[in-house]
Amino acid sequence: MKFAVIVFPGSNCDIDMYHAVKDELGCDVEYVWHDEKSLDGFDGVLLPGGFSYGDYLRSGAIARFSHVMKEVIKAAEAGKPVLGVCNGFQILLEAGLLPGAMRRNESLKFICRPVQLKVENNQTMFSQGYEQDEVITIPVAHGEGNYYCDEVTLASLKENNQIVFTYHDVNPNGSLSNIAGITNKAGNVLGMMPHPERAVDELIGGADGLKLFQSIVKQWRESHVVNA
Amino acid sequence: MYKVKVFVTLRESVLDPQGNAVKHSLHSMNYNEVSDVRIGKYLELSIEKSERPVEEVVKEMCERLLANVVIEDYRFEIEEAVAQ
């Protein structure tokens, strides 16, 4: 399975994402510049964190119109796994691949620390490696992670089990219903504010994020590799 | 040529944490008459005349990029600049 890590001007978690996939997961991975017009040959797409285009106008608003995003949307429509972390999540929201929007953190502060997440749905291609309701520790690092959507959208997220991760005990940013990560209706696009790629090795404080990547690969192998 | 002023603010239904912080600061300065503060963005665009009506073009730009209509409202004022 081969992953693309999309690199925008201002991405700064791209190397962590690459490392997680290459060295910890052991899969093929390549950086793809935002100007590229094709994602042929890639089985999964990773949108890393950072400050694409300096967060000008709104986080993710300008990145959303880069050439490669047309291909990311095509990949999402084709059912390929698409993971957006932090700024990647914000870009997926701006692109309309996921519902809702981000507001400034309630505290108005940039927060950067490990947080506890609860796995609300372990029936997705991103979370099947976790136990249902398992509490995991993953770092957050953002100034705008205060998720918002209207009541109708929230009801639909709940009804379709699209809320995959919520903040456990402490909500660091004020997000609606403690939401930390959601999928699209089809379940192949996940956006989350916490950084699983920063939690892939006990040496750097925890490996709870690795199962997320392993879940994607497991799903892909089961549907693509015969007699594996 | 048109000079267009675009104002983008958080929707009434969306809590504005920055506006709240400023309101509290104003209250602490004894401006107790302030009941609400909303912080937004102000953009100035210069737009050449084209075949499409300028209102239509500006509205489209607001909807697609300048505002995120999930959480933001926008309004705009259009002035025709006098040719030199």
From TrEMBL, chain B:
One of its GO terms (molecular function) is phosphoribosylformylglycinamidine synthase activity. Part of the FGAM synthase complex composed of 1 PurL, 1 PurQ and 2 PurS subunits. It comes from the Bacteria. It is found in: Cytoplasm. It is an enzyme of class 6 (ligase). Belongs to the PurS family. Keywords: ATP-binding, Cytoplasm, Ligase, Nucleotide-binding, Purine biosynthesis. It catalyses: N(2)-formyl-N(1)-(5-phospho-beta-D-ribosyl)glycinamide + L-glutamine + ATP + H2O = 2-formamido-N(1)-(5-O-phospho-beta-D-ribosyl)acetamidine + L-glutamate + ADP + phosphate + H(+). GO terms for cellular component: cytoplasm. Its main location: cytoplasm. InterPro entries: PurS, PurS-like_sf. Its EC number is 6.3.5.3. One of its GO terms (biological process) is 'de novo' IMP biosynthetic process. NCBIfam families: phosphoribosylformylglycinamidine synthase subunit PurS (TIGR00302), PRK05974.1 (NF004630). This is Phosphoribosylformylglycinamidine synthase subunit PurS. Pathway: Purine metabolism; IMP biosynthesis via de novo pathway; 5-amino-1-(5-phospho-D-ribosyl)imidazole from N(2)-formyl-N(1)-(5-phospho-D-ribosyl)glycinamide: step 1/2. Part of the phosphoribosylformylglycinamidine synthase complex involved in the purines biosynthetic pathway. Catalyzes the ATP-dependent conversion of formylglycinamide ribonucleotide (FGAR) and glutamine to yield formylglycinamidine ribonucleotide (FGAM) and glutamate. The FGAM synthase complex is composed of three subunits. PurQ produces an ammonia molecule by converting glutamine to glutamate. PurL transfers the ammonia molecule to FGAR to form FGAM in an ATP-dependent manner. It comes from Cytobacillus kochii.
